[in-house]
Amino acid sequence: MSDQPKPGQLTLVAPRRGKPQRHLADLTMAERRAAVAELGEKPFRADQLSRHYFAKLTGSPEQMTDLPGESRDRLVSQLMPSLLTPVREITCDDGMTRKTLWKLFDGSLVESVLMRYPDRVTMCVSSQAGCGMNCPFCATGQAGLTRNMSTAEIVEQVVAGARALAQGDVPGGPGRVSNIVFMGMGEPMANYKAVIGAVRRLVDPAPEGLGISARGVTVSTVGLVPAIKKLSDEGLPVTLAVSLHAPDDELRDTLVPINTRFKVAEVLGAAWEYAAKTKRRISIEYALIKDINDQEWRADLLGRLLKGKLVHVNLIPLNPTPGSKWTASRPEDERAFVRRLESHGVAVTVRDTRGREIDGACGQLAAATPAS
């Protein structure tokens, strides 16, 4: 494991108000062409810029030799501004897992994680700086919401990972990002427009986007029912992950406070509608917390709720935050929970615990870093 501060460590500055600068990743191809035309250039320059960014993974004007020399710097500064500044990077698993803390233009801190496996590369990305859902066992939830991220700020996390892979900076040789999970900081469905824009940039073929398969993209939510229903009409066959964490309303009201508004039955009902429309299996995320939600009777209740549905349960050994009273379940309780779910015919796996030694849970690295 290594902990390597990057050049230009976090500088304490007063937050700047306003929005992040416009970036071509915020825009559709038609909007990019219009933006280039506004700058006095031929619209097809937008296609060239997009190819450099999404296909060649470069933001350096010096490498854009197909653009007029007198236009490169201006086009790049206006449509490809730097949105993320690396503050800190920590690696483990012999460099195969890399967590990066980023500073946004206003000093807000967000995190992304790149995880390389033999058959795929998964990136976990943030969609908000902080989170307003207030789940008590989550470091990000306890930090509160700072602001929504822009579409381009979300996309930039993936592009940064794709560049590192393409350049061979990640052990295992050059590679490409194959899977994206919106399970970093923030509640994706609470930043719906920017997240959907980011998903479209990720899955659109180059040069419009990165060309990642929509089936490799997972969007999580604690259960914002109207947004789930809206997502089912987007025509994007992404995986929906529901962070359930409890099968009964009494406990879930405490663990996931939005449950006081959208109850378990309503959340699961929206999820089954999504599965019916998209033919995509629902992922149920369930953080196992010692003596809180890991009882066998709760596994039975969950199994009865999910039996016969197009669903998979992803059990997550809780990654405890410093000073928290919440901790991971005992191994024997975890195994018993799995057995009870399987007895109901429900598919279940226990999530790989990668990143535990590098503050792997979303929000932990930011919480350990002085705020700007």
From TrEMBL:
Specifically methylates position 2 of adenine 2503 in 23S rRNA and position 2 of adenine 37 in tRNAs. This is Probable dual-specificity RNA methyltransferase RlmN. The keyword Transmembrane helix does not apply. GO terms for molecular function: 4 iron, 4 sulfur cluster binding; metal ion binding; rRNA (adenine(2503)-C2-)-methyltransferase activity; rRNA binding; tRNA (adenine(37)-C2)-methyltransferase activity; tRNA binding. It catalyses: adenosine(37) in tRNA + 2 reduced [2Fe-2S]-[ferredoxin] + 2 S-adenosyl-L-methionine = 2-methyladenosine(37) in tRNA + 5'-deoxyadenosine + L-methionine + 2 oxidized [2Fe-2S]-[ferredoxin] + S-adenosyl-L-homocysteine; adenosine(2503) in 23S rRNA + 2 reduced [2Fe-2S]-[ferredoxin] + 2 S-adenosyl-L-methionine = 2-methyladenosine(2503) in 23S rRNA + 5'-deoxyadenosine + L-methionine + 2 oxidized [2Fe-2S]-[ferredoxin] + S-adenosyl-L-homocysteine. It is an enzyme of class 2 (transferase). NCBIfam families: rRNA_mod_RlmN. Belongs to the radical SAM superfamily. RlmN family. Residues 117-357 form the Radical SAM core domain. PROSITE patterns: RADICAL_SAM. Its EC number is 2.1.1.192. The keyword Transferase applies. Its cofactor is [4Fe-4S] cluster. S-adenosyl-L-methionine binds at G186, E187, S220, S243, L244, H245, N319. Its main location: cytoplasm. Keywords: 4Fe-4S, Cytoplasm, Disulfide bond, Iron, Iron-sulfur, Metal-binding, Methyltransferase, rRNA processing, S-adenosyl-L-methionine, Transferase, tRNA processing. GO terms for biological process: rRNA base methylation; tRNA methylation. Binds 1 [4Fe-4S] cluster. The cluster is coordinated with 3 cysteines and an exchangeable S-adenosyl-L-methionine. The active site is at E111 (proton acceptor), C362 (s-methylcysteine intermediate). Pfam families: Radical_SAM, RlmN_N. It comes from Planotetraspora kaengkrachanensis. Reaction proceeds by a ping-pong mechanism involving intermediate methylation of a conserved cysteine residue. GO terms for cellular component: cytoplasm.
